[in-house]
Amino acid sequence: MFTMYIYMALVTPGIFILLNYLISNENSYIEKNGPFECGFTSYQQSRSAFSVAFMLVAILFLPFDLEMSSILPYVVSAYSNGLYGLSMLVIFLTSLVIAFVYEINLGALNLERRFTPMVKPLMNKLYI
C-alpha cells in the first residue's frame, strides 16, 4: 500500500506538468519578459547607495543573535545543570557584556553620517 503512494507521488506531478505544457499557450511580450519592480517600469538605475551604518547594525546584531541560540540549551536544562552550568553561563554573558561595552566605547554604534570633504584634483594644485 505504501509503494502505491510513492508511485502516485512520482506520477501525479508528471501528469500535471504534461497537462500544463499541452494546454498553455505561448504569448510572451516585452513587458512580460522584462524585470518587474513594484508594478512600474524602471526608467533609471534603481540601485542606489545606502548608508553603511545599516550594514554595521546588521553585523553587530549577529553575535547577540547567536548569544540567544547559545543560551537556549542552558534554559532548557536549567534544573539539571547545577553550579557548573550556571558558572559557564555567567562567564559567557560577562564576556558578551564586556564586548558590547567595548563596541560602545569604540563608537561602533554611532550612526551619524560622516561626510568626507571634496578633495581637489591633483592637477588643480599644480596650477595654484
TrEMBL record:
<keyword id="KW-0520">NAD</keyword>
<keyword id="KW-0812">Transmembrane</keyword>
<dbReference type="GO" id="GO:0031966">
    <property type="term" value="C:mitochondrial membrane"/>
</dbReference>
<feature type="transmembrane region" description="Helical">
    <location>
        <begin position="82"/>
        <end position="104"/>
    </location>
</feature>
<dbReference type="GO" id="GO:0008137">
    <property type="term" value="F:NADH dehydrogenase (ubiquinone) activity"/>
</dbReference>
<dbReference type="GO" id="GO:0030964">
    <property type="term" value="C:NADH dehydrogenase complex"/>
</dbReference>
<keyword id="KW-1133">Transmembrane helix</keyword>
<dbReference type="InterPro" id="IPR038430">
    <property type="entry name" value="NDAH_ubi_oxred_su3_sf"/>
</dbReference>
<keyword id="KW-0496">Mitochondrion</keyword>
<comment type="function">
    <text>Core subunit of the mitochondrial membrane respiratory chain NADH dehydrogenase (Complex I) which catalyzes electron transfer from NADH through the respiratory chain, using ubiquinone as an electron acceptor. Essential for the catalytic activity of complex I.</text>
</comment>
<comment type="similarity">
    <text>Belongs to the complex I subunit 3 family.</text>
</comment>
<protein>
    <recommendedName>
        <fullName>NADH-ubiquinone oxidoreductase chain 3</fullName>
        <ecNumber>7.1.1.2</ecNumber>
    </recommendedName>
</protein>
<feature type="transmembrane region" description="Helical">
    <location>
        <begin position="52"/>
        <end position="76"/>
    </location>
</feature>
<keyword id="KW-0472">Membrane</keyword>
<dbReference type="Pfam" id="PF00507">
    <property type="entry name" value="Oxidored_q4"/>
</dbReference>
<keyword id="KW-0830">Ubiquinone</keyword>
<feature type="transmembrane region" description="Helical">
    <location>
        <begin position="6"/>
        <end position="23"/>
    </location>
</feature>
<keyword id="KW-0813">Transport</keyword>
<dbReference type="InterPro" id="IPR000440">
    <property type="entry name" value="NADH_UbQ/plastoQ_OxRdtase_su3"/>
</dbReference>
<keyword id="KW-0679">Respiratory chain</keyword>
<keyword id="KW-1278">Translocase</keyword>
<keyword id="KW-0249">Electron transport</keyword>
